[in-house]
Structure formats: C-alpha cells, structure tokens
Amino acid sequence: MPQAFKDLFSSLPSEEDWITASFRLYQGFWLSSRLFKGILTCQNHFQAHPSDILLVTSPKSGTTWLKAILFALLNRAKYSANSQRRHPLLTQNSHDLVPFLELNLYLGQENPDLTAIASPRLFATHMPYSLLPQSVRDSNCKLVYLCRNPKDTFVSMWHFANRMRPEEKGQIPIQEGLNKFCRGVSVCGPYWDHVLGYHKASLDMPEKVLFMMYEQMKVDPHVHVRRLADFLGCPFSKEELRDGTVEGILKMCSFDNMSALEVNKCGKLWTGAETKWFFRRGEVGDWVNYMSSEMGERIDGVMEEKLHGSGLKL
Ligand code: A3P
Fold it and tell me: Which SUPFAM superfamilies match (predicted)?
C-alpha cells in the first residue's frame, strides 16, 4: 500500500474485525486494509462508461447469485442458458466472471487492463454509495443494488467469517458477532447505512439505481429478472418469453444447480476462499436455526431505529 494510504489508514479509528485483523472507520464505514486500498485506488483511477453496469451488495446478500444472473442475462445472445453445454457459468464461478472493482481490479494496480471487457461492462462492488468513484456517480452507468434481510445476512456473514478464520483462532461466538453487527462493525458496515445510501439513491434516481431484495427474488424470480432486464435496457422479447429463456437462466443460476457444479464444489477464488463457501443454504429465514428470538429482536430493534423515516422496512 502506498505510504500515504498507510499513514491515513493507521490514523483512523480501529476495531478488531471478524477474522484476524482490524477494520478502520473511513468516512463512516468500516473497511479492512485491503478494501481501503482497493477503494481509494478505484476512486482515483476508475473511469465509468455510460454503458457500465455495477452490481452493488453488502457482503452476504446474494452477490454470487446475482452476478450469475446478470452475466447470463447480458450474455444471453452469445450463450444460451437452455442449451447449458457451453455456458461459462458451468465451468467458472460467477466471482471469476464478474470482477469486483475494489477487490480484484484495483486492488494491486492503478490501471488494470479493461480493454478486453466487452460493452456493456459488468462489474461488482461492495462500496457504500458515498464512497463510489465520482465518475460512477456522474456518468449514466447503471447500479443494481441487492439487499437481503439483516438477520439472514448476519447469520451468513457469521458462517463465512468462521470459515475464513484460521483454525487456531476457533469460531467467533455468535453473540460477539451480533454485538459487532449491531454496532455497525462489519465489512463496509454499518449494514443499515450501506442499504440506506442505495435506497435513497434509488428513490432519487430510479433510472440509475435499481433496488432489489433477495427475498423477493426468491419468491418471484421470474418477475424480478424481467424487471432487471427492463431496467438494464435489454428487455426479454416476446419470443424469448415464449421459448423459456427466463426460466433457463433462473434454472441454470439456481442454488441447486450452481452448488452442484464441480467448480463450485472444489474450486478456490483468488482470495483463498473456497467456492463452496458461497453456497451454504441459500434460504430465507435460516437465521432461526442459529439465533434466539431475543437475538432476532435485537437486530429488529436496531433496524427499526436506524431505518426510521426512510420508508424502508427490512
Ligand atoms: P447463506 O449463507 O444464507 O446460505 P454472497 O454471494 O453475497 O456472498 O452471499 C452468499 C449467500 O447467498 C449465501 O447465503 C449463499 O448460500 C447464498 N446464495 C449463493 N448462491 C445462491 C443462489 N444461486 N440462490 C440463492 N442464494 C444463493
């Protein structure tokens, strides 16, 4: 990390993170040193194109799933999900097909080669709205935000952190994770400020920011994938609606199909994380299997207070 970044990072308020290092509070959000470096480099160097599409999530909100759906949706003329044979999603994890700006492209370099990426370029990010590069906010590029209910997000985060923790550290007690989450201390947290930033942007600029919910996608994926295609300016044609293109994409990207693929059972990502860690249960309401109702009420109470007046209920 450049010395100036290091000096700034070490001057910021710190908290122990969920794994082995520390988070620092930068402009209201908790960041690891990797995220901090990637975000600042991206802010300084990324030039958004008006046709770019950015998938934005708070970690563990269903990024892996929506990356796959977006990739399949945007590349449907080239790769048919129905004739599943040649589709890149069958041999590559969606994180390898749709890079994160700050965690892949701008992590170790100021000017990654983006020339090979066909238009519309599809990227992902966990950056809070207020930390997005200015060019993203100024250009006509589109942002798709996926939000997930905080109790399931928290439980998914807790499981994931435990997998990432070195064995000798043992598991992080769920109560300790909950205390951190409820104080806003999580990757790119506070969770509620991350969500609120994009929720407000989606109300102010509905043509630029689409706000989606994991739970709604689970209940009626057909409707929401069509909504996504309309928003991105690539609506499904009548013929595609007749010939099962939507169903093909949804089936290919389903939890059951994706989690059974060899690449998602045995692969590893550049971070060292195993691809199977991104496919745990993929269900709504799984939090009840790990948290008491009092713990659930604690998250509900925090959300009620923090989201008050926003019109958003999670
Ligand atoms: P659980 O831990 O609750 O199972 P992210 O991709 O943002 O890291 O989020 C991971 C969560 O999304 C995990 O939740 C994972 O199981 C779920 N997930 C992954 N692929 C999915 C899919 N195809 N459909 C639904 N949920 C999926």
Answer: P-loop containing nucleoside triphosphate hydrolases
